[in-house]
UniProtKB/TrEMBL annotation:
Protein name, entry field: WAS/WASL-interacting protein family member 2
InterPro entries the UniProt entry points to: WH2_dom
Superkingdom classification of source: Eukaryota
GO molecular function: actin binding
Domain WH2, chain residue ranges per copy: 36-53
Pfam families named in the record: WH2 (PF02205)
Region (Disordered): 1-167, 200-221
Stored CDD domains: WH2_WAS_WASL-2_3
Bias (Pro residues) ranges: 1-18, 137-159
Amino acid sequence: MPIPPPPPPPPGPPPPPTFNQANTEPPRLSREEQRGRGALLQDICKGTKLKKVTSINDRSAPILEKPKGSSGGYGSGAAALQPKGGLFQGGVPKLRPVGAKDGSAPPPPPPMIRNGARDAPPPPPPYRMHGSDPPSRGKPPPPPSRTPAGPPPPPPPPLRNGHRDSITTVRSFLDDFESKYSFHPVEDFPAPEEYKHFQRIYPSKTNRAARGAPPLPPILR
């Protein structure tokens, strides 16, 4: 019996939708997907609802301590609020009343503030001019007088026999050297031969022409 032909291959998947079709056609969802989507929208809508505020706790106003007595004055309240250290470490200075006379004594100066345990540096010494010296110092001593010039130094001693002997030996050596070698002027030598141009022959070039071209490289299989 003849063998039946094989079944045809299955068709390929449909082409993807174009950009225009994907934006215009609504997506097709199943019932389960539609239920899940609706539940998600309900949860989002529940979160948008705000709770009603029943009690208001406003803490933006500053908290200030009221003075105990109304007639205590501003100085006591300010002294209580001021910190212990800083500008008013010794206390708040008192102000003069409005009706005080000009001849009254000025208020005492505030106490000096010390930085830790260190005291203020001492005042610098008074400035001195270059020309002004203290009177205690005397005049500088005069320069020492020059001593009278003595006799001129004696002339150098004559050369010893050793130095003269060395000079004579050097001269005798030079005379012997010149006597051994005689130098002639250029005119005494014969004139050189005239230059004649000729073609040079190199053996490496002649052998290359005789051998011929190099063999071809082997063919790779």
